[in-house]
UniProtKB/TrEMBL annotation:
This is L-threonylcarbamoyladenylate synthase. InterPro entries: DHBP_synth_RibB-like_a/b_dom, Sua5-like_dom, SUA5_domain. It holds the Pfam family Sua5_yciO_yrdC. Keywords: Nucleotidyltransferase, Transferase. It is an enzyme of class 2 (transferase). It comes from Paenimyroides aestuarii. Residues 14-201 form the YrdC-like domain. Its EC number is 2.7.7.87. It comes from the Bacteria.
Length: 206
């Protein structure tokens, strides 16, 4: 059964963060808060954990469109091809924030994603998520956790999330109520930025 770990976003407790990082390093799956909906994540370098997430989502790993949660722009640049000035300006303005940017991946992508030409990148404006990535030392692969409820697409209450997911994952972080609007997805691989999905992030600022 999963651990239920309370972490306050205003001042994430180092000891609790380390508990979660240890679980991630050991190949565990963790549900954690972001600045949008709660996410299901694992260490990007752990093949077994990646397979587990793909299995939960019912998709083949090589076909999965998972996001990479990074903690800053330099962290992003390790996995994407050189950004042009206009793309860099957009990222600098929007991040950390409720956006997923689709960018061209480079040769540093884990072997499971080598065939993919593009990668979705997130730097959420949430201190718990950013601290996890920072302490882990590399990005967390992430995917939103959907709800079967047709009215509520995303569950926002960590206790309800724990109830539902406790036998599928290794830890659920209670970082307070989540949002129920997903991130805005913007494709930066073409000549002009293209909005793929309008979510929480405003698009007029871009």
């Amino acid at each position: 059964m999963a651990k239920f770990i309370k972490i306050y976003p205003d001042n994430p407790n180092e000891k609790e963060i380390q508990k979660v990082v240890k679980i991630l390093k050991e190949g565990g799956l963790v549900i954690y808060p972001t600045d949008t909906v709660y996410g299901l994540g694992c260490d990007i370098t752990n093949s077994k954990a990646l397979e587990r997430i793909a299995k939960i989502k019912g998709i083949k790993l090589e076909k999965a469109n998972f996001s990479f949660v990074c903690n800053d722009l330099s962290n992003i640049s390790e996995y994407v091809k050189n950004l042009d000035t206009s793309s860099f300006k957009i990222l600098k303005k929007a991040l950390p924030g409720p956006y997923t940017f689709i960018l061209e991946g480079n040769n540093n992508l884990p072997k499971e994603f080598k065939k993919k030409k593009t990668v979705g990148i997130r730097v959420p404006d949430n201190s718990i998520a950013l601290e996890l990535v920072k302490q882990l030392g590399n990005p967390i692969i992430s995917t939103s956790i959907y709800d079967e409820d047709e009215v509520l697409e995303y569950t926002t209450d960590p206790e309800l999330i724990f109830e539902k997911w406790q036998n599928k994952v290794d830890a659920v972080i209670d970082g307070g109520y989540g949002d129920n609007i997903a991130s805005t997805i913007i494709d930066l691989t073409g000549p002009e930025p293209e909005v793929i999905r309008e979510g929480k992030g405003a698009i007029d600022m871009l």
